[in-house]
Structure formats: structure tokens, C-alpha cells
Amino acid sequence: MSPSTFLRMAKHISTPDKDKLAGVTSAAEKSIKFDDITYLVISDTDDKNVQQVTGHEGRHRAMYLQSIGVSNMPVVIKSYNIRWGCQTREELKYDYIKDWPTTLIDENGRSHTFPISRDAYYVQPEERFKLGAITESRNLYSKDGIQQIIESLNFLGKPKYVINDDLSVDFLEDLTIDTDHYKFTYDEIPFKIGRVHGDFIVYSGHLKSFKNFPHTVDRDFKVVGVQSKMDRSKIKVHNLKDAPQNVRPQL
């Protein structure tokens, strides 16, 4: 959002703290990175359609950016009641909010249109790269882009991997993918896995197909269905197309 919008949302200060503003200015001029991103904290109200800003961080940064003519700045919206990654799939009933907020009250008591749309939040994997939502390179077909999307997902145990020149990914040890996890918002694995040098286990609640599964699994291959909170009627994978062709189970 714009620095001016952020300053309207946060609690108003008539006079900035000179020391804080000087510190922000000095850090910016020396290209020193901050430890966190500017943020707003929002909370529920008695009205299910209304959220209220109850905390913030970064007013002096916003003032500095506004003074040098920056039109937009990154702002994290923190909520202890809205689990952002679970708002695009109604089958995640435990965390899905049926009535999306329409109004946000700033820290000064003024009302604004809620700045986040449910429809706008979910972007197809290929579009995320086009928009730069995951990778600054804005290029799906790059090793940096593949690395960033791997690191954004919930791979249990953080296994070691190698990205090949053809952009397929070989995992050098056991690989477990939990597609029921709130960070996994894809209908298929969003990059090609080449080979898994170990067991390959998938919790498959969100998958529609086995597209991009590895061609070779050196040990056991297992698909573990859905978690208890998922509706089993919504399972989307109905055949073995694109499943691993070479599996070497340990007997």
C-alpha cells in the first residue's frame, strides 16, 4: 500500500520522533536492511464483517518513504484470527471464514474498505511468478525461481536437493510433502521432481493429479490420502497417470 495509506491506518502522531526518523534515514542511505517488514495488526470486532487495526510497526519508515516520493511499500497484515492460506479452499472448513470482512477500522476510528479480497489472494502458480509474488526474478523458468518456490512449501524435514539444468529437482534423501498444509495452495506440485533418493511420501488432500511427480523413487512410494479434517468426498486424484515409473521398495 502507499505510505500515506499506511499512516492513515496506524495510530496518528502529530510530530515524528526525531531520533527514530534520523535512524531510518541513516539506515536507508547506507542500504542497511531492517529486521522486519512494516506491518499492521488486525483483530476481530463484535461485527463479523468488520476488522480493526490494533497494532502497527513502521510509521517512521513510511514517513521517510513518503518524503522521497515512494508510491508503494510492502505491508504485512497480521491477524491472529484469519489464517490467510486457508481462505481459498472451502473444504478446509476448520479455518475457512465463510463471511469475508468488508470493513477495516483504522487505529483512529475511521472506516475503510477491507484491503484484501478473498478472490485476489489466490493466484495460480504460473501467475504468481508473472506477478513476482514468489520470485523477484519474475521468471518461472529459472533456478532461482524454482528454489524460492521450494522454500515456500511445507517439505517436512527440509530435505537436501539439487536443481538440474532442465529445472527438474532431485531430492537427495527421503521426501515428504504435506499438501494438506495451509501453505500448499496448489492443485499439483508446481515444479518437476526428477528423482527421489529415498522414500517419497505424499499427503494428497489438495492434489488433482500426480503431475510433476518423480520418474524414479529409490525406496518406498506412498500416497497417504487426506487428513481427518478434510472431506473425503473431495479427493481429486482418480488414476495413476504421471505416477513414478521406477520404484525400488526396500524389502
Structural class: alpha/beta
Radius of gyration (Å): 22 Å
> What global shape is seen?
elongated
Number of domains: 2
Q: Please count the helical segments.
A: 6
Low-confidence stretches: 122-140, 226-235
- In quaternary terms, these chains amount to single chain
Order of helices and strands: HHEEHEEEHHHEEEEEEEE
Percentage of residues in DSSP E strands: 15-25%
Mean pLDDT over all positions: 78
- Secondary structure: helix percent: 10-25%
Distance between the termini: 57 Å
Count of β-strands: 13
Major sheet? 5 strands, mixed
Strands ordered across the widest β-sheet: 3-1-2-4-5
Which keywords apply here?
five-stranded mixed β-sheet; single chain; alpha/beta; 20% strand; 251 residues; 20% helix; elongated; 13 strands
Could you characterize the architecture of this molecule?
It is a single chain. The protein has 251 residues and is an alpha/beta fold. The protein folds into two domains: 3-121, no CATH class; 153-247, no CATH class. The chain is built from six helices and 13 strands. Strands 3-1-2-4-5 form a five-stranded mixed sheet, with no helix packed on it. It has a five-stranded mixed sheet with strand order 6-7-9-11-13, with helices on one face. A hairpin with a 5-residue loop joins strand 4 and strand 5. Helix 1 runs antiparallel to helix 3 and helix 2 (18-29) packs across helix 3. The longest helix has 12 residues, at 18-29. It is elongated. The N and C termini lie far apart (57 Å). Mean pLDDT is 78; it is low at 122-140 and 226-235.
